[in-house]
Design goal:
The chain is mainly alpha-helical and about 220 residues long. About 80% of the residues lie in helices and about 0% in strands.
């Protein structure tokens, strides 16, 4: 009888225990869309003429990422026991930061098209290239989470390095913009767009910092 009761309790706990892999799959799906969004921004800055198509695509990606973030919250609300490697707040933080990456990428694309900028500064192309590299590393890194059991993750350091590179590109890009652009309206436009791209890269770094902190805390 005891064995039957114990077995029933074990099966019940297994039912309510959240599977980390489920959350990791959500993170991986969100990261994939962040990478796809960065490619759209890169295409725009490289002169792709299909502006409206790019805006439509980034809008679609943003909605998908919002749905995935809500899915992770719903999964948490259905569980009573927190995962082993990531607690509830860790999962919320990572999902929010991934959502921010796409939000700021969308903002950069939207403003670039909306403002009808005259030319694309070289620094904008460089920043988009860094964002592509950062989100690609983030995508590849989140795919490894189901097999990751310590905080020694190469993609964390890689994205930190890319964020530092972006800071240098931004500073030099702004200096060139203020020095060479004669139209103050264009300066205002690009200052805002640069800031949005930088924010997207910063949130990619914030994402991996949240992941690393969770693994250190729960190791």
């Amino acid at each position: 009888m005891a064995h039957g009761v114990a077995g029933s309790i074990q099966r019940l706990m297994h039912f309510f225990l959240p599977k980390e892999e489920d959350f990791f799959r959500v993170f991986a799906a969100m990261s994939e869309r962040a990478y796809e969004g960065s490619l759209l921004l890169q295409k725009l800055f490289r002169g792709d003429p299909g502006h409206q198509a790019l805006r439509d695509q980034i809008d679609k990606l943003e909605h998908e990422v919002d749905d995935l973030r809500h899915e992770s919250t719903r999964r948490l609300n259905r569980t009573f026991v927190t995962p082993i490697m990531f607690d509830r707040q860790d999962i919320i933080d990572v999902a929010d930061e991934l959502d921010n990456v796409v939000d700021y990428t969308r903002a950069a694309i939207d403003r670039t098209v909306l403002y009808g900028v005259n030319t694309i500064p070289p620094a904008a192309v460089e920043l988009a290239t860094v964002l592509v590299a950062a989100t690609e590393s983030l995508r590849d890194g989140t795919r490894l989470l189901p097999r990751q059991r310590d905080s020694n993750m190469a993609f964390v350091e890689e994205i930190n390095t890319l964020e530092n590179k972006a800071d240098m590109i931004l500073k030099q890009g702004l200096a060139t913009l203020f020095r060479e652009e004669k139209d103050p309206v264009e300066i205002i436009k690009w200052k805002e767009i640069f800031d949005y791209v930088e924010e997207a890269i910063d949130h990619a770094e914030d994402t991996v910092n949240c992941i690393e902190a969770a693994l250190v805390k729960n190791s």
